[in-house]
Specification:
The complex is a heterodimer. Chain A is of the alpha+beta class. Chain A has three helices and six strands; from the N terminus they run H-H-E-E-H-E-E-E-E. Chain A has a six-stranded mixed sheet with strand order 2-1-6-5-4-3. Chain A is globular. Chain B folds into two domains: 264 residues, Naphthalene 1,2-dioxygenase Alpha Subunit, Chain A, domain 1, CATH 3.90.380.10; 103 residues, Rieske Iron-sulfur Protein (3-layer Sandwich), CATH 2.102.10. Chain B has 14 helices and 23 strands. In chain B, strands 13-19-18-17-16-15-14-23-22 form a nine-stranded antiparallel sheet. The radius of gyration of chain B is 22 Å and the shape is globular. Classes of the chains: A alpha+beta, B alpha+beta.
């Protein structure tokens, strides 16, 4: 599979999207992740979801190379079921978290398999994680794809490129 | 050191300071990491002439290179002039390296090629200098090991019975070749490296640490490590140990059950294996991949490979990747996908193991009780038909083998 760089295949920003509304959605997604609200966070995703945290480089072939996370909708569900058991020890007790999402840009449109155009959004983040192990500062660049389904914004795709993607990183079992 | 170790390491318990004492860690670097054979990487990471990849060996920054003639070297990443770092890129292809500080250049064998303004040294070719090299480099099944000891046991002698476990993995490739070319996840772990080495063939923990993921996925793995399992924990000697799951898979006698599938779902693989191995293919596909900890830092967990490297008494890095079997595309993609789900900093298995390592590390700082207990199954150990000590699936036979070898090396 050819690896698409961020700009390839990107269409013009589709109509009907307002930056403030998009930002409100990103902030809500961030808050649900910070507060470990697994049900509400999982409900944001569409059925063709992809949640991806590459390792080693920002643009690897996720089929041929290992990533830190490469979850389709089924695997997101498995991840959430595991953590809800309360015995996912890497998140039991859960991390205390707060993150800032900023530099939000509407990047363009991305054709989807159903024939529609999803909105592609870029943003930076800084997340502060506190656990008994110690505190961690996580930073990175997120690419989101959003779709309006029955009037509500839903999350189709979230790719998180950590600033530390080419280094050894500690356990990252919270929702990044 | 001998008297101290006799006090700290007993057949049924080991002292907490072994995991926390910086002096012991310094001694381990000298007597283990910079003496014995240590796993560094795999030949498939440098497939072409002049390929190179940066690696760690203990605390050393090492460049694994393949020279123009095809030979693999482990170079120490410092300039012979002023100690500057020579190679910056994580990987690449180059016949030479150039130090950015004063422009000294080295062939990818470590040989000094040149230095600018050479009259300052009386002309060209006047210096008997080069990049440092790990003196002994050897590979087995493509797994590359380095030893800083100029003399000592050969790699094959070091591996001993564990070599047969690498053979089992290689036999699962229809082209008799394992590749580790899917990249590595690097997982920083605030725990002593020995807690990881001990855990890798600890069959007692999976039902507890991994119960959450076994439960939600309906995984049959947990049962392999139950009280009723016929699997055995084997001390392979030399500090190596395995969880031998073959007795369980032989009971079912279903090819590819070990991989969670059936042969008819991977027909091209099955056909290629039968063409290569003949009647033996059935057994090989029933018995599956090894679960073996090779002292001190290579862990083959069926479809994943781990490279453990120490940082300090209280920290190490786990590098993990997916096994790729040459000639088995039907299996390889799935092994990558399963590895992403299981291992690394967000893995649904290994992040929980790592939480346990870090909890253990905090625990061993606590003063009382001073000991970690490793006696589980000591009273029911047996010797198998090949003379190896074995315990049940959940016994601490592997840990005891680890400590016996550790003590031998540290007393040397």
């Amino acid at each position: 599979m050819a690896v698409l760089t961020a700009e390839e295949g990107l269409l013009e920003v589709p109509g009907g999207w307002d930056l403030r509304e998009v930002e409100q959605f990103l902030y809500r997604e961030a808050r649900l992740a910070d507060e470990n609200d697994y049900d509400a966070w999982e409900a944001l995703w569409t059925d063709d979801a992809l949640y991806w945290v590459p390792a080693g480089a920002a643009d690897i072939d996720p089929v041929a190379q290992v990533s830190i996370i490469y979850d389709n909708r089924n695997r997101i569900a498995t991840r959430m079921k595991q953590v809800r058991t309360g015995k996912r020890y890497a998140q039991a007790p859960p991390s205390n978290l707060r993150r800032i999402v900023g530099n939000v840009e509407l990047l363009g449109g991305r054709a989807n398999a159903a024939g529609g155009i999803d909105l592609e959004v870029g943003a930076n983040f800084l997340a502060f994680e506190s656990r008994q192990r110690g505190n961690e500062l996580w930073g990175g660049r997120t690419t989101y794809r959003l779709r309006r389904v029955d009037g509500a914004i839903r999350l189709v795709y979230k790719k998180v490129v950590l600033v530390d993607h080419d280094k050894a990183i500690p356990t990252m079992a919270f929702l990044i | 050191m001998t008297a101290v170790l006799d006090e700290l390491i007993h057949p049924d318990k080991v002292h907490g300071s072994l995991y926390t004492d910086p002096q012991i860690f310094a001694e381990e670097l000298r007597k283990i990491w910079y003496t014995t054979w240590v796993f560094v990487g795999h030949e498939s990471e440098v497939p072409q002439p002049n390929d190179y990849v940066r690696k760690r060996l203990g605390l050393q920054d090492v460049i694994m290179t393949r020279d123009a003639a095809g030979e693999v070297h482990l170079l120490l990443n410092r300039c012979a002039h002023r100690g500057n770092q020579v190679c910056d890129d994580a990987q690449g292809n180059s016949s030479s390296f150039r130090c950015p500080y004063h422009g000294w250049t080295y062939r990818n064998t470590g040989e000094l090629l040149g230095y600018p303004y050479n009259q300052g040294y009386g002309g060209k070719g006047k210096l008997e200098l080069g990049m440092g090299r790990v003196p002994r480099v050897a590979s087995y099944g493509g797994f590359v090991f380095g030893s800083f000891a100029a003399d000592g046991p050969t790699l094959v002698e070091h591996l001993g019975a564990a070599a047969g476990e690498i053979d089992r993995l290689v036999a699962l490739s229809p082209e008799s070749r394992v590749e580790l070319n899917a990249g590595w996840l690097a997982h920083k772990t605030k725990a002593n490296w020995k807690l990881l080495a001990e855990n890798e063939t600890d069959g007692y923990h999976p039902q507890f640490v991994h119960g959450s993921i076994f439960g939600v996925t309906g995984s049959p793995i947990g049962a392999l490590y139950s009280d009723n399992s016929t699997a055995v924990t084997r001390n392979l000697g030399g500090g190596h140990s395995e969880n031998d799951l073959r007795p369980e898979f032989r009971k079912f006698a279903e090819p590819m059950r070990w991989f969670g599938t059936t042969e008819d779902r991977v027909p091209e693989y099955g056909a290629a294996m039968r063409a290569l191995h003949g009647p033996d293919a059935e057994r090989i596909m029933i018995e599956g991949a090894p679960h073996v900890m090779i002292f001190p830092n290579l862990f083959i967990a069926e479809i994943q490979v781990f490279n453990i490297q120490p940082v300090s008494a209280g920290e190490c890095i786990q590098y993990s990747t997916a096994v790729q079997l040459a000639g088995a595309p039907e299996l390889n993609r799935r092994m990558i996908s399963q590895s992403i789900g299981s291992v690394g900093p967000a893995g649904m298995l290994l992040a929980d193991d790592t939480e346990m390592y870090e909890r253990n590390q905090r625990g061993v700082e606590i003063l009382d009780p001073e000991w970690l207990d490793v006696r589980r199954g000591l009273h029911r150990e047996q010797v198998d038909e090949n003379g190896f000590t074995i315990g049940t699936a959940t016994d601490e036979t592997g840990m005891r083998g680890f400590w016996a070898h550790y003590k031998t090396l540290m007393e040397a």
